[in-house]
């Protein structure tokens, strides 16, 4: 009996050693394969002196700097052939890739894994050019460019062209476009993804594809359907939009004592029905609501609209600031003293970690509930809410026209966010506030499903389950997928089945493949 047990233990040891040896051999083989096609200065192993600085350079949430599964290799390609080589080497050696453009993924899934996994990160920081053609009002924008770099290039090309995307200038184009992407031009010109007219994709076979060669279903899926699920988009061709030479911005803060509850209650009905040249969002924090606006026109033209449509806000001429569209980009997000050149800065302060989630509102929330909400915002360790109005031309687009389904009937989107410093601990109290407030809001937001925005990724909504054959489960993915994509989830899974049936491009919330006939 003792001899039998000893033999069994020896067998287990030998099997474990063989498995480890095989794994190390695959790792060596992967690196050798990469080195044959990619210059060594673009490759970093965990023992490389620059590994940590390269990895941490675009981590935007300090809580992911430690205690997480990191890439075994970092690849910083400079051209399409490097990306193709990374995919082919990865497939050959069973090493998955995660793709980072700007590092703003709310759960850090572009550079880390929730579970133990051997993977490489493809950092797109060196593929970031922006080529603007003002005459045709189009641009090619590489995935590694930031929104700030894109906006700056567009602003340099003319003061009557713009692009409708997000507010934060350090966000990477690749992830932003892949999940939809919206900002102050949303109601008139839609999402960033709505304005994508071509793309260059490296698929799971290492092929370089454009709009025509990838097929209509995959091109549809890339534009707002979690694009990292389908391959690696190197570059996006976008159509630029027209703006006047002068736009108007305003910030009007209203405290609870000044009537914020009544003004917010009214805002819910007014903001989605205003002319689509006018966008008024609200940041609600503590006992104050800050109404922040961009209007495509002059102050003289805006004032009569505000007096007739939203007098409750009390906005007047002294609140107006006229400027060019490109000047409005830093003004709105970075503050009144920021310059246009500031949007080229790729670094951000790393003094606070954060947690976020989202909701959609289809029926206006009552005044009494808003009073209770301000009570939540007055609690210790409370976070904030950002309310972005829908309506306008954006909401007239059919739900199935793009993967992004939150269109007609939506009044506004809510982003909940909370912050904590390292000195205050691991953020347990702040995360609990988000969790409990989200539960409180359930009766007042969309239902069946309770909708969420894919670019405000939240793993608390659900994670993929990898089943037989190493493929993510379509049915398990519905838990989170239908919240982000509603009825479009199935079509996204079918597009995934066409381009990546083996589920090579996978993370905790990537689209699972659904293959016809299986």
Automatic annotation (TrEMBL):
<dbReference type="InterPro" id="IPR016169">
    <property type="entry name" value="FAD-bd_PCMH_sub2"/>
</dbReference>
<keyword id="KW-0325">Glycoprotein</keyword>
<keyword id="KW-0732">Signal</keyword>
<dbReference type="GO" id="GO:0071949">
    <property type="term" value="F:FAD binding"/>
</dbReference>
<dbReference type="InterPro" id="IPR036318">
    <property type="entry name" value="FAD-bd_PCMH-like_sf"/>
</dbReference>
<comment type="similarity">
    <text>Belongs to the oxygen-dependent FAD-linked oxidoreductase family.</text>
</comment>
<feature type="signal peptide">
    <location>
        <begin position="1"/>
        <end position="17"/>
    </location>
</feature>
<keyword id="KW-0274">FAD</keyword>
<dbReference type="GO" id="GO:0016491">
    <property type="term" value="F:oxidoreductase activity"/>
</dbReference>
<dbReference type="InterPro" id="IPR012951">
    <property type="entry name" value="BBE"/>
</dbReference>
<dbReference type="InterPro" id="IPR016167">
    <property type="entry name" value="FAD-bd_PCMH_sub1"/>
</dbReference>
<dbReference type="Pfam" id="PF08031">
    <property type="entry name" value="BBE"/>
</dbReference>
<feature type="domain" description="FAD-binding PCMH-type">
    <location>
        <begin position="66"/>
        <end position="243"/>
    </location>
</feature>
<dbReference type="InterPro" id="IPR006094">
    <property type="entry name" value="Oxid_FAD_bind_N"/>
</dbReference>
<protein>
    <recommendedName>
        <fullName>FAD-binding PCMH-type domain-containing protein</fullName>
    </recommendedName>
</protein>
<keyword id="KW-0285">Flavoprotein</keyword>
<dbReference type="InterPro" id="IPR016166">
    <property type="entry name" value="FAD-bd_PCMH"/>
</dbReference>
<dbReference type="Pfam" id="PF01565">
    <property type="entry name" value="FAD_binding_4"/>
</dbReference>
